[in-house]
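Appendix B. One record, verbatim.
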Amino acid sequence: MSSTTLTVAPAGSWNLDPVHSRVDFEVSYLAGTFKGEFHEIGAELSVEAERASLAGRAKVASVDVRDENLSAHLQAPDFFDAERHPELRFAAREIRLDGDGKVSLEGELTIKGISKPVAVSGTVSGPMTDPYGNERIGLNLSTKIDRSDFGLDWNNPLPSGEPSLANEVTILAELQFVQPGDETS
């Protein structure tokens, strides 16, 4: 039981700075790691007293894996099914400080219309004042999920019979949040 009353940030609503934020994923594929990014993301951080909550989303149509055909395949029903499920969503009602800038969250991730609990961990940096008088904090978060839990079952067997694409996916979020300061610029 901790007696600290620290929070991840000062009270109030914090808005995502999408230019300085990103949401990526990594999954083992063939002899390496397949990586992608969602370009259109949004998130809100809310801090009240000693409690902080986080809600985020990513537009499936904005997935980028540096190949137009592969990006299109990820939007198809084999994977994210962007037409029927245009967004991935995450929500956590509490962000816990674990000491030394480390944070942990228990949240709910929704992919392809399927919601599952996930444990997320990472670090928090800040708060700090930027050159324009705004307060900023950074959250670097990661989690591992089994993609098959969310109906992402596509695979292409290798000649050995092994799957070419692993089920375990790492999701990485580097998020900067900003809260307008008292100064005007």
